[in-house]
TrEMBL record:
Residue stretches making up the STAS domain: 21-112
Coiled coil: none
Family under the similarity heading: Belongs to the anti-sigma-factor antagonist family.
Xref: Gene3D superfamilies: STAS domain
PANTHER family: ANTI-SIGMA FACTOR ANTAGONIST TM_1081-RELATED, ANTI-SIGMA FACTOR ANTAGONIST TM_1081-RELATED-RELATED
The protein's name: Anti-sigma factor antagonist
Phylogenetic lineage: Bacteria, Bacillati, Actinomycetota, Actinomycetes, Micromonosporales
GO molecular function list: anti-sigma factor antagonist activity
InterPro entries per UniProt: Anti-sigma_ant, STAS_dom, STAS_dom_sf
Pfam families reported in the protein's UniProt record: STAS (PF01740)
Length: 112
């Protein structure tokens, strides 16, 4: 059997209105440490940290735990984590785990 690739890509934009992270691929146990490290390495900012999940195909329980950890860390540093544009599968995961009650989820227009 061939090896399964768990691709995760992220594009970070730091601006005056916050930090935008556009994520594509899967967030699962195979790459969650990389995902968390990327978000934790971002500079603290009072403006929002927006994570665009529109390109995420799968979000595992490990990914959910990472988002909650990033939320707590961001809030402790005076910022706010906002999850943006999750597809229906990812949105269902966020609702089933009640993350939507803790972390704001928004639909935003894609940046050019």
């Amino acid at each position: 059997m061939g090896e399964v690739q768990h691709q995760l890509r992220a594009e970070v934009t730091v601006g005056t209105r916050g930090i935008d992270v556009r994520v594509t691929g899967e967030i699962d146990i195979a790459n969650v440490d990389e995902f968390r490290a990327l978000l934790w390495a971002l500079p603290p900012a009072p403006a929002p940290l927006r994570v665009d999940l529109g390109g995420v195909d799968f979000l595992s329980a490990a990914g959910v735990r990472a988002l909650v950890a990033v939320h707590l860390r961001t809030r402790a540093r005076g910022g706010q984590l906002v999850l943006c544009n999750p597809n229906p599968v990812v949105r269902r995961t966020l609702r089933a785990t009640r993350v939507n009650r803790v972390i704001p989820i928004r639909r935003i227009a894609p940046t050019p």
